[in-house]
Amino acid sequence: MITILFTTIFCLSLAAGWALAFYNGSDLLGYAMSIIIGGFAGSSIIALVFSWLYFFQKETDSEKIQRLREEINRIKGVKKLK
């Protein structure tokens, strides 16, 4: 699901760069620069969306307890190896 969202954002940003160059009547270099800038803008938007989803996700209590148990077991396992 998230892959489809990120792919859609990136493709739309590339298309927006191409459309901007097309409507401005740019030459080949203008097309390339517009598409590159559109790709960079799309990547930046994806990074912002990913950060927002990561930092503002809501965990249920059972998910949090399970995650903490797994982390404690992982730490215990590392201590046993030493």
Model description:
- With 82 residues, the chain is an all-alpha fold.
- It has one domain (2-81).
- The protein is 88% helix and 0% strand.
- It contains 3 helices and no strands.
- It has helices spanning 2-24, 28-55, 61-81.
- Helix 1 (2-24) packs antiparallel against helix 2.
- It is elongated.
- The model has no long low-confidence stretch (mean pLDDT 86).
List descriptors:
single chain; 82 residues; mainly alpha; 3 helices
Low-confidence region ranges: none
Radius of gyration computed on alpha carbons: 21 Å
Taken as a percent bin, the fraction of beta residues is under 5%
How many β-strands, per DSSP? 0
Round the mean pLDDT to the nearest integer and report it. Answer: 86
Fraction of helical residues: over 70%
Distance N to C terminus: 40 Å
Indicate the structural class.
mainly alpha
Alpha plus pi helix count:
3
Major β-sheet annotation: none
* Secondary-structure element pattern, one letter each: HHH
Form type: elongated
In total, how many domains does the architecture comprise?
Answer: 1
What does the secondary structure layout of this molecule look like, with pairings?
Elements: H1 2-24, H2 28-55, H3 61-81
Helix pairs in contact: 1-2
